[in-house]
Amino acid sequence: HIMTNYEGECFCGAVKVEVVGEPAVMAICHCKICRGWSAAPINGAALWEPENFRVSKGEEFISSFAKVEGHDRKWCKKCGGHVYVDHTTTYGKIDVYASILKDFDYKPSFHINYESSILNIKDGLPKFKDFPEPFGGSGEMMDE
C-alpha cells in the first residue's frame, strides 16, 4: 500500500507543507472563530496526525496567533496566507486547510458548530450543534 503525499502552500508560495496518508478527520466548521480568521462563511478542516505533517519550506516565514489556547493558527508573514492550525494540545492533531492542498480530494464527514452557521448547507451530512461527543461536544444534532 503506497502512502499518498499531499503538498500545500501559502498564497505566495514561501511556506510549503506536506502531509502523508489521509486525514484522521475531515469536517466543515461553522464557528465564529474559524469564520473570523478565514473571512469566509465556513472552514474546510482536514485534521492530520502530527507525525504525518511537516513544514517542507519557509518555516522562518511562519507566524502564529492563538485567540483561544490550544488553537495556534499559523500563516505566512510575507503574504498573510493561512496555512494550518496546531491543535496538538487540544485534539492531538494538525488542521491543514484543505483548500491549500494540491490534488487533495476533500470529503468531509460532518459539520461542526452548526448552531453558529451563517450559511446553511443542504448536503445530507450530519450537522452537530457543537462537536461530536468524542471531541468534547454535546453530540447534539441539528436539522439542515
Written description of the protein model:
This protein has a seven-stranded mixed beta sheet with strand order 6-7-8-9-4-3-10. It has a three-stranded antiparallel beta sheet with strand order 1-2-5, with no helix packed on it. The chain is built from one helix and ten strands; from the N terminus they run βββαβββββββ. By secondary structure, it is mainly β. It is globular, with a radius of gyration of 15 Å.
Quick summary:
This protein has 144 residues and is mainly beta.
Describe the structure using short key phrases.
144 residues, 10 strands, 5% helix, 1 helix, single chain, mainly beta, seven-stranded mixed beta sheet, three-stranded antiparallel beta sheet
Question: What's the arrangement of secondary structure elements?
Answer:
Blueprint: E1 5-9, E2 16-20, E3 25-29, H1 32-38, E4 43-48, E5 53-57, E6 62-65, E7 72-76, E8 82-87, E9 93-96, E10 110-112
Parallel strand pairs: 3-10
Antiparallel strand pairs: 1-2, 2-5, 3-4, 4-9, 6-7, 7-8, 8-9
In whole angstroms, the N-to-C terminal distance is 38 Å
Q: What fraction strand?
A: 25-35%
> What strand line-up does the widest sheet have?
6-7-8-9-4-3-10
Could you say which overall geometry the principal axes of the C-alpha atoms support? globular
Q: What string gives the helices and strands in order?
A: EEEHEEEEEEE
The main β sheet shows up as:
7 strands, mixed
> Portion of residues in helices?
under 10%
Nearest-integer average pLDDT: 94
The number of helical runs is 1
Gyration radius, in Å = 15 Å
**Unreliable segments of 5+ consecutive residues:** none
Which class best fits the helix and strand makeup?
mainly beta
- Please, what is the oligomeric state? single chain
Number of strands: 10
